[in-house]
């Protein structure tokens, strides 16, 4: 549970730092920095203290459920800067796989469901932007499209919770498909 808060704080810190840098400097096309990798964000997550570990800070009560899932965490496909291309399919898939051992616990359910949704959206963006083309990943893209149609654009915790079985099932089916097609994302 604590690790999610640390990771979220680290992602927020990385995003804000990138945003601050992009606001302070005008970058030309030739000197634009490459997109940050998931590994770099994960490494900085371990070094960043969470809000609850800072003395005098008030962390949200785990007993009080969030009315909406947390905002996008900067996972795969989420661009810190406008115009930044989505991550590679392998990186986006690794982010999705990182959710396989997690579950919807009472204190972290909103975060977990939001993260699975974000990872699926990031993988969708990566597959559609892949040089092989979206036709190379027909089943995962179709599964995500079906999920999006069921969710109706509502990313709130209540809607994700109501569609939890479909959300997790979509993640698991895509994981199985990708495992059966390793050459498609390596």
Automatic annotation (TrEMBL):
The signal peptide annotation in the UniProt record is 1-25
Sequence segments annotated as region (Disordered):
51-88
Which domain of life does this protein belong to?
Bacteria
Query: What are the UniProt keywords, alphabetically?
Result: Signal
Specify residue ranges for compositional bias: Low complexity. 51-61
Q: Can you say what this protein is called?
A: Lipoprotein
């Amino acid at each position: 549970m604590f690790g999610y808060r640390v990771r979220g704080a680290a992602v927020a810190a990385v995003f804000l730092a990138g945003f601050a840098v992009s606001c302070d400097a005008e970058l030309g096309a030739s000197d634009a920095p490459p997109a940050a990798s998931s590994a770099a964000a994960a490494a900085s997550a371990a070094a960043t203290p969470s809000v609850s570990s800072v003395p005098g800070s008030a962390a949200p009560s785990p007993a009080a459920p969030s009315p909406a899932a947390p905002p996008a965490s900067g996972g795969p496909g989420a661009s810190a800067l406008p115009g930044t291309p989505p991550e590679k399919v392998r990186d986006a898939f690794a982010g999705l796989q990182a959710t396989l051992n997690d579950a919807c616990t009472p204190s972290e359910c909103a975060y977990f469901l939001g993260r699975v949704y974000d990872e699926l959206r990031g993988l969708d963006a990566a597959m559609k932007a892949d040089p092989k083309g979206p036709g190379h990943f027909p089943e995962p893209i179709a599964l995500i499209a079906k999920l999006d149609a069921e969710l109706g654009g509502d990313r709130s915790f209540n809607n994700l919770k109501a569609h939890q079985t479909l959300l997790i099932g979509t993640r698991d089916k895509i994981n199985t498909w990708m495992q059966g097609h390793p050459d498609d994302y390596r």
